[in-house]
Amino acid sequence: MKKICKVLVVEDHEGIQEVLRESLSAQGYHFSMVTTGAEMRAALASDPAIDIVVIDIVLPGEGIPVLSLYASNFYAPSNRANSFWMTR
Description:
Rossmann fold; 34% helix
């Protein structure tokens, strides 16, 4: 049986959230959305089954600092413009 990845999206812009929501839904991913680094930390602490994190690295005051906190827990294979995705 194919495992469906759990995705956490960290994005504060509603338009980008909507695009990601439609895309992830269409691909059959289980996902949740948060808007701040604090919400991301809480989501990761409460759900160890999250496989992928997509984070807006220009999240005001939080993108890169929050990303650096989790660098040792995730493999970070791709940096595309203003977003970054990490896998466990």
